[in-house]
Amino acid sequence: MTSQQYYISRKPAEEFLTTFAKALKEPESHPLLFHVYGIGGIGKSTLLDTLAETHSQQAHIAKFDFTGKTLSNETPLKVMNKLYEQIPKPGILKQDLQDLISDPFIRLYKQYQGTLEELTTKPIEGKKTVDQDQRDLVKDLGSAAVYSSAALFAVSTAAIDPTGFVVSAIAETAKGVVSGVGVGAAIKDRLLLKHPATKQDKKLQDLMLEPIPKLTKAFVEGLIQNQKARLLTLQKLQKQPIILVLDHYEKATFDCNLWLVEYLLKESDLKSQPIRILVAGRYSLKKKSPRERALIFERQLEKFDNKQTEEYLKKIGINDNQQIRQIYQATDGFPYHLDFIRQQQEEGKVINCSRDNKQLVDRLLEGLTPNEKQVMHLAAYCRWFDEELIQKLLTANGIDKNEKSNWFEWLIERELVVEEDQFRLHDVVRDILRRSHFKANQQKFRDNHDLLAKYFKTLADREVHPENPEPEKYDNSQWREYMAESIYHGLFAERTKGQRLLLTHLFAGVYLNKMDVVVVPYVAVAAEREFENNELLPPDTRKFLNNIKLALKFRRLLSRNPNNYEIKNDNDSSLKSQIEASVKNCLSQVDFLDGLGKYAGLLQG
What one-character-per-residue DSSP string does 49-102 give? Predict the structure, then answer.
């Protein structure tokens, strides 16, 4: 099967396809760059393939895929050349036309590469051989002195690009150019002005020092000129569109991203032409390039719903309705997980959709260092996180601070992290990583949740002093939020402590009519999995949560004596006895509670 067979229609994708088609017909009134982004396995490349197939008969499509390449070898020059090679030149009278118009990009690119070869292999004036100083200067020329001063300044102000684009050697070398070390001046004085290939040609010297802006302009001129030549040759009334595709763009080097944003997008002649740039990656370009927002049309792909998941599974050969329901429940429509199932199906393996599957975990964390993987696992403990919380977990787990200057900044740029009101991991990813950590070391799993329970209790005490009156605490919404998180983590930690913490706030919350302290963590745990099937909870805690659920549902009854209320339910005559049993289960532990919770519980006992 081809990837096209796995394409599942979604609203953002349909908007993307529709707007792109309009842009080819009316380029002046539409953005120049079309970008689809989202987490790994969400269907970005599939959407690109679908779009390419749709326009393959009407447009020339040139593609550069950053997957599997050696990052240090990725340069804007190589990307431009690879794309340009894929644009077919006019068929008849090809040589005559090329001689007549002289392809601007091919001519300039060959001149640059040929000159670089001469600078590398032939000695400068007055020397018999190429010495180490010349080799070093040529190396600097090829890695650093390829951008204009404005772009070099942009590099110098960013030690690490927050989008996740890899910073190549240029970022380090270029800082010297801008800061006054004078690498560019040294290259010109000691190499270009003394070498026979360049010493008499100022335009060539300028090209060698700043090839990217000049070659980008020639690249665009060549694309437009090619369209005009084809129009002349075939006597067409309409230019044939050109689509430049950049896939897996999250793996592009920093200099390639700089080229795209600072040079290619700023070539004003492109805007009015039926030439469009199509990009797929994991990070938002608009967010990281606010000045170019008007030039970018962007859509984010997210998970499949139930119907879309069913359609996808049937396309890959899974038709059993019960199995489809099981897979949807396990994957929650997360395409990365669904793609893993597709892989198993195609390889003829037994489908394993469990979230503690080591192969799935390895796939999610592919390419990360051991410490980076551990940071992702630790982030999975949290329902949400900020920098202080992540640092607390890293310190407690002995993560090397020297590997990253700021682990939090690194973490929030991962494609698996969701940014809403707060930062958090994608729900399915979080569940997969938590289960993996639990399976590897249950005691460490409990210890980390205990650490977090204490951490949030400390934050609550920081918000309202622990000796202040109880009503003052419960009236403070921030205190309630922190205590809710403390209860949540406590339930996954030491069994007795977590249960008693929940009951304490259950009785106090009923007494003060402030129930979110308990309802929030209870619902959060219930949403993850049915209590009895949630092996991440201590066994006694699973039973405890099941036993108190009716008491929590009918919590108003906790303020009355069980002998003084009636429950009428025609459909279930045993409901009253079940509620009574649930309430009594809560009351049986009142003696172990503290503070207002104990007092409120004793009033009902």
Answer: HHHHHHHTTTSEEEEEE-TT--GGG--HHHHHHHHHHTSPPPSTTHHHHHHHH-
Residues 486/572, Cβ–Cβ less than 8 Å: no
Chain centroid, CA 267 distance in Å: 29
The three-state secondary structure class of 246 is strand
- Determine phi and psi for 423, rounding to 5 degrees: -85, 140
Tokens 């740039």 belong to residue: 277
Q: Who contacts 224 (Cβ-Cβ below 8 Å, separation ≥6)?
A: 269, 273, 275
For 247, list phi and psi in degrees, rounded to 5.
-105, 155
pLDDT of residue 391: 92
pLDDT value of position 270: 92
User: Which of 270, 222, 275 has its CA nearest to residue 97?
Assistant: 222
Contacts of 347 (CB under 8 A, 6+ apart): none
Cα–Cα dist 330/352, whole Å:
10
**CATH fold of 3-93+216-300:** Rossmann fold (3.40.50)
> 516-528 and 539-553 are packed helices; what angle lies between their axes, rounded to 10 degrees?
130
Q: How many Cβ atoms are within 10 Å of 239's Cβ, its own excluded?
A: 16
Least confident of 24-33, 76-85, 203-212, 490-499: 490-499
Query: Strand, helix or coil at 313?
Result: helix
pLDDT value at residue 592: 64
Residue 443 identity (one-letter amino acid)? Q
Tens-digit pLDDT profile for residues 493-548: 977 888 888 888 887 877 777 778 888 888 888 878 778 888 899 998 888 888 87
Task: Please give the Cα distance from 370 to 275 (Å, whole number).
Answer: 43
| Alpha carbons 240 and 230: distance in angstroms, whole number | 8
User: 0.85 cut: is pTM over it?
Assistant: no
What are the φ/ψ torsions at residue 245 (nearest 5 degrees)?
-110, 130
Tokens found for residue 316: 């890959």
| Region of poorest pLDDT, from 207-216, 269-278, 482-491, 527-536 | 527-536
Dihedral over Cα of 212, 213, 215, 220: its sign: positive
- Name the phi and psi angles at 36, rounded to 5: -115, 130
Model confidence at 361, pLDDT cuts 50, 70, 90, reads confident
Domain boundaries, the chain: 3-93+216-300, 104-213, 306-353, 441-604
Question: Position of tokens 């180490």?
Answer: 132
- What is the band of 178 on the pLDDT scale with cuts at 50, 70, 90? very low
Range 20-49 average pLDDT: 87
Reported residue count of the chain is: 605
Gap between the Cα atoms of 164 and 186, Å rounded: 32
> Which residues contact residue 377 at a Cβ distance below 8 angstroms, ignoring those fewer than 6 apart?
433, 436, 437
Are the C-beta atoms of residues 247 and 37 closer than 8 Å to each other?
Answer: no
User: CB of 134 within 8 A of CB of 248?
Assistant: no
pLDDT above 90 for 159: no
118 CB neighbour count, 10 Å cutoff = 14
- Rounded to whole angstroms, how far apart are CA atoms 13 and 301? 7
